[in-house]
């Protein structure tokens, strides 16, 4: 019982002693009986109204990117090389005000594609259905607030790509490949081909985040 109580306390993002590792993630899932993701229907959705909110997270909780990166380091969350570079880019911004954001997670197949689709096609289809692209801040915030992510799950954030110092377009992915919870970057070119089984995270229409997107700060 004490172990379960301690594990629940680790969920809080504000607790620096929380450990963001695969071992702790698996232990947490077993202790609190977190079920693996249920098989998802691949029937294409017809509108954003068909998609239930998947998760609500907080944004605007860090004053600058240095505090954000320090929190990720303190919690042991891994950050890939390209993702680490993106967090340091001027184009990566943070909301000035605290808000809660409703997110949805959909597969490329649920957006109506078979086989593969380009990133441009995926974004266009999602927006046509009424889903909104997420600000880049969503990626590290989701990483910090999704400590019970199942092993083997990779969630690409539907966001505007950010260029590396070398000019490579990158989008961010929240992942648990089995070696630990991590934030990584992946190909963000418009013509990048994405598998139909890949899953994307978008902002749910009517989210309280909307008024905040106009006011961003590093």
From TrEMBL:
Q: Which domain of life is it from?
A: Bacteria
Under which name does UniProt file this protein? Uncharacterized protein
Q: Which organism is it from?
A: Bradyrhizobium barranii subsp. barranii
């Amino acid at each position: 019982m004490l172990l379960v109580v301690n594990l629940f306390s680790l969920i809080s993002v504000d607790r620096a002693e929380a450990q963001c590792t695969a071992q702790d993630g698996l232990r947490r899932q077993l202790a609190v009986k977190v079920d693996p993701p249920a098989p998802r229907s691949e029937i294409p959705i017809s509108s954003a109204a068909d998609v239930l909110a998947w998760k609500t997270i907080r944004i605007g909780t860090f004053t600058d990117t240095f505090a954000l990166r320090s929190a990720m380091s303190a919690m042991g969350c891994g950050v890939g090389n390209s993702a680490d570079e993106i967090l340091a880019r001027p184009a990566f911004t943070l909301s000035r005000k605290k808000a809660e954001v409703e997110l949805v997670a959909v597969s490329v197949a649920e957006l109506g594609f078979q086989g593969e689709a380009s990133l441009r096609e995926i974004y266009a289809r999602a927006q046509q259905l009424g889903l909104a692209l997420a600000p880049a801040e969503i990626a590290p915030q989701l990483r910090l607030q999704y400590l019970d992510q199942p092993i083997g799950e990779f969630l690409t954030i539907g966001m505007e790509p950010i260029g590396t110092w070398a000019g490579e377009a990158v989008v961010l992915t929240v992942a648990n490949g089995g070696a630990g919870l991590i934030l990584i970057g992946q190909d963000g070119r418009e013509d990048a081909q994405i598998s139909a089984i890949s899953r994307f995270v978008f902002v749910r229409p009517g989210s309280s985040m909307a008024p905040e997107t106009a006011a961003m700060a590093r």
